[in-house]
Amino acid sequence: PGNPQPRMFRLHDDKAVINRYGFNSVGHKMVELQLRDRLRRYLYHSAKLHPRTTASLLTSSPDGASLSDALGINRSLKDDKLLGINLGKNKSSDPESVDDYVKGVKSLGPYADLLVINVSSPNTPGLRGLQRKDIFEKLLNEVIIARDSLSGSRPALLVKIAPDLSDDELDDIADAAMKSGVDGIIVSNTTISRPNSLYSDSSLASETGGLSGPPLKPLALKSLRKIYQRTNGELTLVGCGGISNAKDALEYARAGATLVQLYTSFAYDGVGKVREIKDGILSELKDKKWTDIIGEQWKN
């Protein structure tokens, strides 16, 4: 059920949000059933278009779990699209246990193009403790083993970290990620800090939870730059935090992000925000490509 309501607060003057949802979710089994049903519906549609191929698949994979592999398409079942699954941790679990993540990889990995190991939500007690060097290394090793045990196409594995870590902690995370063979890092989740730049009413700004939106951007960018330098640009990094326009996205790319994610600006400005940012990126880049500017600030 997550944390008690109210648990989400909009700071309109800052176009920011504070949330303390607490990983409300229907759980692994229900999500797995939904994903399996989605595959079966796709299979039913495919039977009309490719009856011979589908008949063979039904014989070899009745539950449809390796359907996308057999058809040679992404687990999203759509060209040029990826299906990502975010794995959290139960509030009731032992704070230092990694079992919830391992179970999630095993049960939901067959349906995903990428899995995100979220160890950075501030709303589950003890969760951010998994970013400590010794526990973090154990976590990455365990989920890598679980991912590599899956049959068929194996999903990419990314870990999502907090923006409130010290330089030494960021170094430890970068080193552990490189050593483990994880595919990438998402930088970053929400912040528990309250920057002095906040304009909004203090009663809302003081609510417990993670802050997202433009006030998060300086913290997230600082962490991204540190991780990029430590990994020498050898690890896929996803920039996240306060991206509201094309210039924000490009700033993350130049700092080392291969990809970017939107959350709060998407909620405030609606579905057209993605198209607006993409058009803005094309206009800003002129004769360059996105891939040309990844880590550009470190190459001058």
Helix content: 40-55%
Based on Cα principal axes, name the global outline. Answer: globular
Largest sheet: 6 strands, parallel
End-to-end separation in angstroms reads 50 Å
Order of helices and strands: EEHHHEHEHEHEHEHEHEHHH
Tell me the strand order in the biggest sheet.
3-4-5-6-8-9
**How many strand elements?**
9
Q: Number of DSSP helices?
A: 12
Report the C-alpha radius of gyration, rounded.
Answer: 20 Å
Beta-strand level of the residues, as a percent range? 5-15%
Q: What is the mean pLDDT?
A: 91
Assign the structural class, choosing from mainly alpha, mainly beta, alpha/beta, alpha+beta, or little secondary structure.
alpha/beta
Runs in which pLDDT lies below 50 for 5 or more consecutive residues are none
Determine the oligomeric state from the structure: single chain
Structure overview:
The protein has 300 residues and is of the alpha/beta class. It is built from twelve helices and nine strands. The strands form two sheets. The chain has a six-stranded parallel beta sheet with strand order 3-4-5-6-8-9. Helix 5 (133-148) links the parallel strand 4 and strand 5 (156-161). Helix 1 packs antiparallel against helix 2 and helix 9 packs across helix 11 (272-285). The mean pLDDT is 91. This is 22202_t:CDS:1.
